[in-house]
Amino acid sequence: MELDLHPTAEDLAEHVAAKNATVHRSSVYRTLEALSELGLVEHVHLGHGRAVYHLVGPDARAERTVHLVCDSCEAVVHVDSSVFVGAAEVILEQTGFTIQPGHFAIPSRCRHCE
Ligand SMILES: [Zn+2]
Ligand SMILES: [Zn+2]
Ligand SMILES: [Zn+2]
After folding, report:
1. What pTM, to 2 d.p., does this model score?
2. What's the CA-to-centroid distance between 6 and ligand 3, angstroms?
3. Disulfide: which of 52, 78, 101, 105 matches 6 by Cβ 3.0-4.6 Å?
4. Which ligand lies nearest to the CA atom of residue 74 in the structure?
5. Helices within the chain (DSSP H only)
6. 2/23 Cα distance (integer angstroms)
7. For the chain, how far is it from start to end, CA to CA, in angstroms?
8. Cα of 60 from ligand 2 centre, angstroms
9. What does the pLDDT look like over 40-50, one tens digit per residue?
10. The listed CATH number (3.30.720.210, 3.40.50.1450, 3.30.1490.190, 3.40.50.720) that belongs to domain 9-108
11. 99-112: per-residue pLDDT in tens?
12. Cα of 55 to ligand 2 centre, how many Å?
């Protein structure tokens, strides 16, 4: 099984089990939790509640990275959250809401599925 860039917790647990059957699923989940607390991984919702894990690199922090997901082929791309700065300011001014675009992917349609 190939592990993609955005595995779910279940994908990771299966991947680990395939490599070493003695590692219990619950320890994979616990490890993920620990890594999340340390800020090394974070989860993102790509659609319909599907949470996947995203490795946090030096320039891939939640507040800096926004996920776009194609609603047809489920391709995922990252964009820098700076592109939303203008919209965020207008929204804050008009509604008092601070948007957090990093936690949920923005439903999109990729070039190939148009
Ligand atoms: Zn969440
Ligand atoms: Zn990601
Ligand atoms: Zn697509």
Report:
1. 0.76
2. 16
3. 52
4. 3
5. 9-19, 25-37, 85-95
6. 19
7. 29
8. 8
9. 888 999 888 67
10. 3.30.1490.190
11. 888 888 999 999 99
12. 7
